[in-house]
Design goal:
7-stranded mixed sheet, about 525 residues, 4-stranded mixed sheet, homodimer, alpha/beta
């Protein structure tokens, strides 16, 4: 442990701009140690304040309404007698599967949740801090389809899965390998979690997410992590973060509760997320969505602390609006952004890390619609102060598709967010008074000493944008961003080199997977 | 006057969400009076606070640095002996054309600038309030080229100019007709201002901008405005806003000073904008850009108050970064956003209205690059609290091109900003506790009374986004946003109906133009 935290302190690169500039030192150290990893932003330490829209009075009103929901309406904990017994023991009113909570009980129980925690990566230089002023970007989670220009839209395979793990590993602005970067439907449903967790461990050295689709798959994820990190380390540290969705409205089911219990007991982190399409699983108004989200999250988070006080948890919020024409979820519209800003403030008041946002869109292609919607989600994500950002890259078509091209386009935008979060350089050099004095009226700054000294790192350098002249752009084929991204993702995969993994650990992982897979027949539903 | 302000008070629709919902009443009134105008958001009255990043201490530091620039380095006022004499009279140190200012002089002179003013439109329902919590969106300004899918990139004509005036008139979220929506290069350079101002007056009833390319063209613009609004009205009210760029660094030229003097003397508004490509016309650091922008703007704004104390003025900031590869300006990157937020705060402290931002991009096509860059500019524009937003729709390729398709795509995004700026509905209905009580755990909200009552206006409805199923989208031709926007702009132009204009006024305008055009030979440079 001492070794890991020493390295982490030494490398704590942090805040975008400064981090990016100071990157040479960290990179140099990595290269010296022969780590073989790519230059990487560790995570974002925001140097900018969160954007607060709601007054304290209004936030209190929403909190009181959420307590009323918990007290009067309650939350159902389905098919889990153990959970009901725990709630009865904790002082809640249990009526069948409906649990009603004395005002303030859930909030009180949440006090043992750490306000910030470290998720360790197998490469300690890649560990992330979740909470506080930090923002961690993770890839898209869950799509059954993938898309790229040549292949079009098709079912995802484990090969695609590995490719997205590699793309996240290669992207400087992605800090996390994520979980189900796409659903590998070519592998039996009861066995694919082995291949997914293995891919994160083998093809990346970033922190990752475990399986939540059944309690025993959560146990398998923990067992595999122990083969890599060591049994003692896993039990006393957090090496996985896991996505637990509420069955909104106001319901948790046995599958999610089961996975939550497994992870909490092993001290692994969970994100408790009410998943809401506004108007379907919650009221149509942003304040109504926030009230219900807070109530559901409070109940789930409080339950985790009954399982293991102090277990690291994240308050999640996923809220989309829906199309009045088609009923489909819509993204990048004003209403979800309002929900995000409000929920971020409520999570800060509760003192727990917050997950929301990403690069969400409803578009079928990485076109202007996708870009608008993604940015209209991503900027609130950063300015709201989200701590853990799932779906930060690759999400297309309302989460049905993992897009290769959009992945690299989004990753470029994440880099910009990292720089923006670095805020202003107010040093003497940043103030640039020498430059102003040197140049004076009517001249230009291109050649002055200050420009020469700062030019190389002065501006974020996009990997996607074409800023050449019109004539040059035309001569190069008049390609749009989508087409350029196709070339970039292929080049990135071609350049990929796997991080080192101890062969003994690799062998142990493979042996474990073979044994477990052989122990059960294939299942496809 | 009484009539105009009464109507304005009665119609003061304001704040996005509430304004949008209350729109029926205003529309009904318009229809009753037979105004023949399209449903329109008047302007945005922001219900959300500005996003403040810099501390008071840091803002003061930048203000002090700007005073140092004004005092030590000074600003050149070129080829305008009258301006130099006015500065000498005001107590500045004039050395050749270099003017140095005692600390605090410019800021003191700016005290007579109104913190907010009304720009009257010929249709009083379309007048806008510039300053305070208000945001006014105006189209792209200045491109010599236009582009659409069929025609590609080509030089703009007066026909294109009229089309963009019509598109702005038809777009609910554009509040202003703008100025040089494209440069009609088919008309002699010394005569095109007549056709441009006429197009704004004839094909729209929105507020508009006058010519600034020569003092006599500014006088022509004022004369034409007087034919429409009446001589007395123009001299005592503001009916035009005009774009005065500084020749950064630290220089004003005679052309711009001449136009500024004309407009200020007639009580017409000017936007004094240092136009900065960071690293070329200013230092490479955001704080350096802000320091210089503030110094230049202070000098220009203060000068306007020497011409006519109380003349309405706007502090402008246009700052892009540049590409290290090509030297071209780049947009939507983090550094210009930082400059925008900072300049907005500095303008608020000075107490003058602020212009910046828009839907800027460097992309050659309305693709993902254009959309990312535009949104990365537009969101800071709204959250920063910009009062007057030039280039809010149609800007492409670094301002070289007015794009038909991007115009309607941007206009859709502007509508989203209007809704977002409405903030949260915290009424009983907004809190939706009845809905939560009615539905309860495990059910859905689609059919509940609250959803039924609110569904129609609950979510912003995009005119561009496709939210249909994948199958339906494919059956309809798998069109991207660019292609859909092509159809939308054509439909909009086909649906266009001109607002009424008194035939006697129209005749007077035409006669004036003919007389003035006949009085001079064509010039082409």
């Amino acid at each position: 442990m001492a070794r890991i935290s020493e390295i982490e302190d030494a490398l704590s690169s942090g805040g975008g701009r400064r981090g990016r500039r100071a990157g040479g030192g960290a990179e140099a150290r990595r290269a010296k140690r022969g780590g073989g990893t790519t230059p990487k932003n560790r995570y974002i330490q925001r140097q900018i304040p969160p954007y607060e829209i709601l007054s304290e009075e209004n936030l209190t009103l929403i909190e009181e309404n959420a307590e009323t929901v918990l007290q009067e309406i309650g939350i159902e904990f389905r098919d889990d007698p153990e959970a009901l017994a725990m709630w009865r023991e904790a002082g809640a009113d249990v009526d069948g599967e409906r649990v009603r909570f004395p005002r303030g009980l859930c909030r009180k129980l949440c006090e043992t949740i750490p306000s910030s925690f470290t998720q360790h990566a197998r490469n300690p230089e890649r560990s992330v801090e979740i909470g506080g002023n930090n923002t961690v970007f993770a890839p898209v989670y869950g799509p059954p389809f993938v898309r790229d220009i040549e292949g079009g839209r098709r079912y995802a395979t484990i090969e695609d899965f590995r490719n997205f793990v590699k793309l996240a590993y290669m992207a400087p602005a992605l800090h996390h390998s994520g979980g189900t970067v796409c659903e590998p439907v070519d592998i039996p449903v009861n066995k694919r979690h082995f291949d997914m967790v293995y891919a994160h461990l083998r093809y990346s050295d970033l922190p990752f997410m475990g399986s939540v689709t059944a309690p025993e798959r959560a146990e398998d994820s923990v067992a595999m992590a122990k083969l890599v990190f060591g049994e003692d380390f896993v039990e006393s540290n957090t090496v996985m973060i896991n996505l637990i969705n509420a069955n909104s409205p106001m319901t948790f089911d046995a599958t999610m509760l089961g996975a939550l219990k497994v992870y909490a007991r092993h001290n692994q982190a969970c994100i408790v997320t009410p998943f809401i399409l506004s108007g379907a699983m919650a009221p149509v108004t942003p304040v109504g969505v926030m009230t219900q989200t807070l109530a559901e999250a409070l109940a789930g988070l409080a339950f985790s602390q009954l399982v293991r006080p102090g277990a690291p948890m994240v308050l999640g919020s996923f809220a989309s609006s829906i199309s009045m024409q088609s009923g489909a979820p819509t993204f990048g519209t004003p209403e979800p952004a309002l929900v995000l800003y409000g929920m971020a403030a409520l999570a800060r008041r509760l003192g727990v890390p917050f997950r929301s946002g990403g690069s969400l869109c409803g578009s079928k292609l990485p076109d202007a619609q996708a870009a608008h919607e993604s940015t209209q989600t991503l900027i609130p994500t950063l300015l709201g102060g989200v701590n853990f950002v799932l779906h930060a890259a690759g999400w297309l078509e309302g989460g049905l598709v993992s897009s290769y091209e959009k992945f690299v386009i989004d990753a470029d935008q994440l880099g910009m967010m990292q720089t923006f979060a670095g805020g202003y350089d107010l040093s003497e050099n940043g103030q640039a008074m020498d430059a102003l004095r040197e140049v004076g009226p009517g001249s230009h700054f291109l050649g002055c000493a200050h420009t020469q000294a700062n030019f190389e790192t002065a501006f974020y350098r996009s990997s996607i944008a074409d800023n050449n002249s019109f004539e040059q752009w035309e001569a190069e084929g008049a390609r749009d961003a989508f087409t350029r991204a196709n070339a970039l993702y292929k080049k990135t995969l071609a350049d990929y080199q796997a991080p080192a993994l101890d062969p003994a650990i690799d062998e142990a992982l493979r042996a474990f997977i073979k044994e477990r897979k052989d122990s059960m027949p294939d299942a496809f539903a």
